[in-house]
Amino acid sequence: MSYRLGVDVGGTFTDVLLVDEDSGATWRAKTASTPADQAVAVLTGIGRVCADAGIEMTEVAQVLHGTTVATNAILEGKGATVGLVTTAGFRQVLQIARSFVPGGLAGWIIWPKPEPLADLENTVEVDERIASDGSVVRPLDEDDVRRQLARLAGRGVQALAVSLINSFADPSHERRIAAIAADALPGVPVSLSSDVLPEMREYERTLTTVANGYVQPQVKRYVQHLSEGLASGGVAGELSILRSDGGLQSADAAVGAPVTMLLSGPAGGVTGAVWVAEQCGFRDLITFDMGGTSTDVALVRDLDPRIGRETRVGDLSVRASSVDVRTVGAGGGSIAHVPQLTRALRVGPQSAGADPGPAAYGKGGVEPTVTDADVVLGYLPSSLAGGEITLDVEASRAAVGKVAEAMGLASPEAAAAGIVDIVNENMLGGLRLVSVQQGFDPRDFALVAFGGAGPVHANALGRLTGAWPVIVPPGPGLLCALGDATTSRRDESARTVLRRFGQLDGTELAQILRELADEAGERLAAQGLAREDQTVGYQVDVRYHGQGFEIPVDVDAEWLDGGDALAELGRAFDAEHDRLFSFLLDVDHELVNARATVTGPRPDVAPLRLEEGDGDPAAALLTEHPVHVGGERVTAGVYDRERLRAGDVVRGPAIVTEMDSTTLVLPGHVAAVHPSGALLITPAEG
C-alpha cells in the first residue's frame, strides 16, 4: 500500500489527512496549532493519524504540506534583518515605492505607511550600470562591492538581497556580487533579483527579492526542523511544500525561493475544491472558504484556478504567481457592533479570534459574533459531533441580546438574523470580486463551500449569487489538507521581452518560450520528476503599445508550431481586453513578459465511494431542532453525515452535522448526497 499525507497549518488548528492511494480511504486528525513552532503540531498530528489508521510512519511515501510560516513572518514582522545591494543612485527604491494609498480620498491622512522590509541604513549602493538591452554601461567595481558588504557585515544582516537596475537583461553583475558575498558574509543566504523575478520594473523586482530574503532564514529553520522530526519518526518519504500557485515544490526549492509560498495555505483549499468538484462532474466553480476570522474566495474555470501575478499579504504586495484568492474580513468570529453615531448594525472586521472566541465557546467571550448569531437562530445545535462539542446557547443569546437592545429590536433572534444577513452580504461582495468584477456570471459556476463556517452560510450564498449547485465536500474543515495531498509538482521560469509584435516573429517567440520551459523542466528534473512526466504551459503578458499595464494571456502550444502564433496571440488578447474593458485600440500589440510553467502528473488518489442508498435519509436522522429562517420559526431535521448514503436526498430545512463542520439546508432547497460523499445543494423543484 502507498500512503500520502496532506498537512495544513492554520492559525487555530493543524489538519492532517492520510490518504490510501489504492483504496481512496482517508483518516483525519485535528490538533491545536503551535505558533511558537508549527512543526510540533504537525508531528503530533501525523503521529495521531498514523495511529488511527494502524500504520507505521515508515509506510508514508510522501508528506505534502501547506504552511503559513512565510505568511506569518510577514504579518508579524518577525523576518530576518535584510541587507540590500542596489545600483548607485537607487538606494531609496523601496522608500519611493509606488504612489498608491488604500482607502478613500483622504485615506493618506490616517494610513500609516508600512516600513520597508530592508531598512535604509541596511541598503548600500555599488558602482555599476547595465542598460535595458543588457549592454554594460559601467563595469562592476568589485573593490567597492567588498567595501559595501563589509559595512553590512558590521550591521549584522541575516540575509542579503541583490537587486541591480536592469539585471533582468544581464544577471552577470548580480552573480558576481553573490560570489563575493560568499566570502564577505559567510553563512548569510543571498537572494538575487535575476533569479527571484527576472522581469522589468525595479521596484516590484526589488521588493519581491527583499521579501524572499526576509522570510528565508525562518522558512529554512522550520523546514529543517520538520524534516529532522519526520526522519526521526521514521518517515522515509519526501517532504514537499505547497506553492502559492497551487503546485508542489521540494523542501529544498521552498527554502531557496520562499517568496513562492506566501499564500501556501489558501492555495491548498482551492486545489482541494477543484478535486472535489471534478469528482462531482463540475469544471467551473467558485471556492468559498469561511473560517473564524476571514473568508477566502477564488474562481476556477475548466478545473484550472485563475493564477494572478501578484501575491498580497497584509500591506505587502509582491510579484509572484499565486492562485487569485480574495480575502474578506468576515468569519465565524467576526464581531457585531452598533456604532453610537450611526446606530446601524456592523459586522467585522474585528474578530474574537480563537481566544476567548465567540460567547458560545464558553471561554469567557462576551462580544456577539457571527457564530453566536448562528447559535441563536438554531443553525448550530447545542450538541454537535455526537456530543463532542457543546455550545453555550444562553451565553450566545445574552451576547446577541446586546445588539437587539442597542437597535431596539424585539428579540435576540431578530438581531441574529440581521447579523447573518450582513455577513452574508459582506461575503457576497468578495464573491463578486472574483466573478462579476472579472466579467464572469456567477450563475455559470458551482459554489464549493468549505472551512469550519462555510457550509453553514453556503446555501444562503448560493441563493444570493445564483451559483448552483452548492457543493459541500466531506470533511470541509480539512479540505486544505486534501488539496495538499492531491496536487502536483510545479515550477515556472519568466523573462522580460518588451518587443512590439511588429519587431517579433512567431519563431522567435516559440524559441523564447521553449527556452523558459527547459529551465523550469531542468529544475523539476533535479527534484526527481522525469522530463517525460512533465507537462508544459505557456503564458505571456501583452498590452497595446503605449499602455501602462498588461494582461496575461495563455499561449496554446499548437500556435508555436504554426506560423501565425503572434496573430493568434493578438486575437486572444483583444478578446480578453474587450471582455474586461469593452473596447479595443487600433495600435500594435506589445509583448512584455513571457513565462513557461511546468507541472508533473497529479497523484492518482482514488475517490471514496459511498454505499448506495434508496434516497431516504431517515437512517441518518438524529433529532429535530427549531431554526429561525426568514422571520419564521420552523423545525429542521438534524442528520449525521456519516450515516448518509449515496443518492439520499435531505430536504430543507435541515442541519447536517459532522466532525469538523455543520451544513445548513434552507427551506425550499434539497441536498443530494453524491457517491463521492459531497452534498449538492440546489433549489427544490416545484
Structural overview:
With about 675 residues, the protein is an alpha+beta fold. Helix content is about 30%, strand content about 25%. The chain is built from 18 helices and 37 strands. Strands 13, 14, 15, 20, 25, 26, 33, 36 and 37 form a nine-stranded mixed sheet that branches. A six-stranded mixed sheet has the order 3-2-1-4-11-12. A four-stranded parallel sheet has the order 6-5-9-10, with helices on both faces. A hairpin with a 4-residue loop joins strand 34 (about 655) and strand 35. Helix 5 (about 140-155) packs across helix 6 (about 170-185), helix 10 packs across helix 15 and helix 13 crosses helix 14. The longest helix has about 30 residues, at about 200-230. The protein is globular and about 80 Å long. The two termini are about 50 Å apart. The mean pLDDT is about 90. It holds the Pfam family Hydantoinase_A. This is Hydantoinase/oxoprolinase family protein.
Structural class: alpha+beta
Oligomeric status: single chain
Mean pLDDT: 89
Query: Which spans of ≥5 residues are poorly predicted at pLDDT below 50?
Result: none
Approximate strand percentage: 25-35%
Q: Please work out how many helical segments DSSP would assign.
A: 18
- Total strands: 37
Estimate percent helicity.
Answer: 25-40%
Radius of gyration: 26 Å
Major beta-sheet overview:
9 strands, mixed
Distance separating the two termini: 48 Å
Approximate shape: globular
